[in-house]
């Protein structure tokens, strides 16, 4: 059972395939949402994965600030269906937030959250900064976490 941060070039072909397959299986197939999953940001992002028995069960993509919003963002937050309910999503978010604030030291972090997860993200200190909008057929809201409002920003 291990958590690991990867630069894109550190990923093996098998790891990249497994990450992309998990993303497509959940975001495209499970959520019945055809959209362009491969968006050109993976190559410059940090990838956080949790592996158990050689399988990736949780994953997030940490996007540097200059690529999307002017501040770093967390995206593609995912836990495999068979691993849900074990607290992996909470641990994944804590590790993602901790990495960004300690390694990149920004003033804030952003994310685009599905509306049904708004309270989950608020539990980490994220605040909505947009109204609800449709993103590929799913209601989303933009959210922001300011460094001074984050209890684990020093991690």
UniProtKB/TrEMBL annotation:
<feature type="domain" description="N-acetyltransferase">
    <location>
        <begin position="6"/>
        <end position="148"/>
    </location>
</feature>
<dbReference type="InterPro" id="IPR016181">
    <property type="entry name" value="Acyl_CoA_acyltransferase"/>
</dbReference>
<dbReference type="InterPro" id="IPR000182">
    <property type="entry name" value="GNAT_dom"/>
</dbReference>
<protein>
    <submittedName>
        <fullName>GNAT family N-acetyltransferase</fullName>
    </submittedName>
</protein>
<dbReference type="Pfam" id="PF13673">
    <property type="entry name" value="Acetyltransf_10"/>
</dbReference>
């Amino acid at each position: 059972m291990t958590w690991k941060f990867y630069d894109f070039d550190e990923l093996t072909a098998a790891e990249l395939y497994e990450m992309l397959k998990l993303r497509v299986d959940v975001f495209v197939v499970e959520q019945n949402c055809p959209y362009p999953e491969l968006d050109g940001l993976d190559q410059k992002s940090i990838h956080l994965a949790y592996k158990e028995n050689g399988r990736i069960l949780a994953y997030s993509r940490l996007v540097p600030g200059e690529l999307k919003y002017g501040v770093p963002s967390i995206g593609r937050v995912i836990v495999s269906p068979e691993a849900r309910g074990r607290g992996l999503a909470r641990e994944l978010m804590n590790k993602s937030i901790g990495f960004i604030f300690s390694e990149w030291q920004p003033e804030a972090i952003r994310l685009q959250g599905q509306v049904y997860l708004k309270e989950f993200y608020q539990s980490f200190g994220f605040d909505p900064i947009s109204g609800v909008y449709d993103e590929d057929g799913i209601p989303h809201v933009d959210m922001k976490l300011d460094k001074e409002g984050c209890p684990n920003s020093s991690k």
